[in-house]
């Protein structure tokens, strides 16, 4: 888990280098390819998590082991990049790390797993794409962010919010005609259908409430990231410690919910593969790729590829798990995608204006398209990718 205790981008400018690094031609290919790879990690993770939950794995068991593997994946980066930084946080810093883990792991990720178990992969991914919207709404409510209705960026953000909410309502309330699958379906369903409990795995109302709670958990988590980055700026150590704290909290809660210790035994099967995959790829590898992309292209860049995950998840969820596709799901998904891009366009313009104003105020010259600011913005955009 980065986004996770969160991937934090330094807010101290370009440091002593005096400017941004040169943009190499290979980056025009490598950057979008890396973001496509991150989306692929997210798609596979959601599907694997759904399969593991369908075969009887408890959400907090998956959560505890995943974050333990995630800590093991990130700690080498901490030793390599932050070997000179302090490794033992103070009591107040431990408090913020614990709070960070509570919101980011227990509430955001834990409620998402419960929502995923009660619904399906396609439905849950839509809520992951609503995380930037919910985060902005919470920030506005807390007066940490302003929504300027008089400017075009502000109007586009408001339009994006309304369209996303409308798209989510369409998916939730309207099914419409069931569409025929143009590809072979139910490829993996025979292996997991018998283990799934219909009363648990097909409760859309409870699942929707869990997913909404997950969005709120992510929103407050990203706001906490800003404070954590100030009191404990070592991002790799913060991520490692947050993963460890989250794993411990998940273990305690899991034991309190279910006293059966056999649920914690892992074998060489799908459950173990899901745990290892999520910890290594969705925490370790994605952590590096997302940080690099945001540093070179800005906090909005990764979210430009979110629609790939939504469309691909619809196809793979149908082909592998046999999830039915309804007309309402397609229409609602398209509305969410359009609303998200409208919101990101407005947010991107606001960031450009803010950066230009800051540079003019400080008397610095323009140095290119590199970004060294905005840990909160990075976290808001990564929401579903790395922690799903």
From TrEMBL:
<protein>
    <recommendedName>
        <fullName>WAT1-related protein</fullName>
    </recommendedName>
</protein>
<feature type="transmembrane region" description="Helical">
    <location>
        <begin position="93"/>
        <end position="115"/>
    </location>
</feature>
<feature type="domain" description="EamA">
    <location>
        <begin position="207"/>
        <end position="343"/>
    </location>
</feature>
<feature type="transmembrane region" description="Helical">
    <location>
        <begin position="156"/>
        <end position="174"/>
    </location>
</feature>
<feature type="transmembrane region" description="Helical">
    <location>
        <begin position="325"/>
        <end position="345"/>
    </location>
</feature>
<dbReference type="GO" id="GO:0022857">
    <property type="term" value="F:transmembrane transporter activity"/>
</dbReference>
<dbReference type="GO" id="GO:0016020">
    <property type="term" value="C:membrane"/>
</dbReference>
<feature type="region of interest" description="Disordered">
    <location>
        <begin position="358"/>
        <end position="388"/>
    </location>
</feature>
<dbReference type="InterPro" id="IPR000620">
    <property type="entry name" value="EamA_dom"/>
</dbReference>
<comment type="similarity">
    <text>Belongs to the drug/metabolite transporter (DMT) superfamily. Plant drug/metabolite exporter (P-DME) (TC 2.A.7.4) family.</text>
</comment>
<feature type="transmembrane region" description="Helical">
    <location>
        <begin position="121"/>
        <end position="144"/>
    </location>
</feature>
<feature type="transmembrane region" description="Helical">
    <location>
        <begin position="60"/>
        <end position="81"/>
    </location>
</feature>
<keyword id="KW-0472">Membrane</keyword>
<feature type="transmembrane region" description="Helical">
    <location>
        <begin position="272"/>
        <end position="293"/>
    </location>
</feature>
<feature type="compositionally biased region" description="Basic and acidic residues">
    <location>
        <begin position="362"/>
        <end position="388"/>
    </location>
</feature>
<feature type="transmembrane region" description="Helical">
    <location>
        <begin position="29"/>
        <end position="48"/>
    </location>
</feature>
<dbReference type="InterPro" id="IPR037185">
    <property type="entry name" value="EmrE-like"/>
</dbReference>
<keyword id="KW-0812">Transmembrane</keyword>
<feature type="transmembrane region" description="Helical">
    <location>
        <begin position="204"/>
        <end position="224"/>
    </location>
</feature>
<keyword id="KW-1133">Transmembrane helix</keyword>
<feature type="domain" description="EamA">
    <location>
        <begin position="37"/>
        <end position="172"/>
    </location>
</feature>
<feature type="transmembrane region" description="Helical">
    <location>
        <begin position="236"/>
        <end position="257"/>
    </location>
</feature>
<dbReference type="Pfam" id="PF00892">
    <property type="entry name" value="EamA"/>
</dbReference>
<dbReference type="InterPro" id="IPR030184">
    <property type="entry name" value="WAT1-related"/>
</dbReference>
């Amino acid at each position: 888990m980065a986004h996770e205790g969160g991937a934090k981008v330094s807010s101290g400018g370009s440091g002593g280098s005096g400017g941004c690094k040169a943009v190499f031609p290979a980056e025009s290919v490598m950057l979008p390819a890396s973001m496509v790879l991150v989306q692929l990690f997210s798609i596979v993770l959601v599907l694997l998590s759904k399969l593991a939950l369908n075969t009887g794995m408890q959400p907090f068991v998956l959560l505890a082991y995943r974050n333990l593997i995630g800590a093991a994946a990130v700690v080498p980066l901490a030793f390599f990049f932050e070997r000179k930084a302090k490794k033992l946080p103070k009591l107040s810093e431990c408090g913020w790390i614990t709070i960070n883990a509570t919101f980011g792991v227990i509430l955001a990720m834990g409620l998402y797993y419960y929502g995923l178990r009660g619904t399906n992969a396609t439905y849950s991914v839509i809520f992951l794409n609503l995380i930037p919207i919910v985060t902005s709404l919470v920030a506005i409510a807390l007066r940490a962010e302003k929504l300027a209705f008089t400017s075009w960026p502000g109007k586009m953000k408001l339009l994006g919010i309304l369209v996303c909410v409308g798209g989510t309502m369409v998916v939730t309330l309207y099914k419409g005609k069931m569409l025929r699958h143009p590809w072979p379906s139910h490829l993996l369903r025979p292996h997991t259908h018998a283990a799934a409990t219909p009363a648990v795995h097909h409760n859309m109302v409870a699942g929707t409430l869990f997913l909404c709670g997950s969005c709120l958990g992510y929103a407050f988590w990203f706001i906490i990231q800003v404070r954590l980055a100030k009191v404990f700026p070592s991002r790799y150590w913060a991520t490692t410690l947050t993963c460890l704290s989250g794993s411990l909290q998940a273990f305690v809660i899991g034991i309190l919910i279910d006293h059966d210790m056999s649920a914690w035994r892992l074998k060489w099967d799908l459950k173990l593969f899901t745990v290892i995959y999520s910890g290594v790829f969705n925490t370790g590898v994605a952590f590096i790729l997302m940080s690099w992309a945001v540093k070179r292209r800005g906090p909005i860049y990764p979210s430009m590829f979110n629609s790939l995950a939504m469309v691909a998840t619809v196809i793979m969820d149908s082909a592998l798990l046999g999830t039915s596709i309804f007309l309402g799901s397609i229409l609602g998904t398209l509305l969410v995608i359009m609303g998200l891009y409208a919101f990101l366009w407005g947010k991107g313009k606001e960031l450009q204006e803010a950066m230009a104003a800051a540079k003019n105020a400080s008397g610095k010259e323009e140095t290119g398209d590199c970004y060294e600011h905005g840990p909160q913005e990075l976290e808001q955009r990564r929401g579903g990718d790395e922690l799903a």
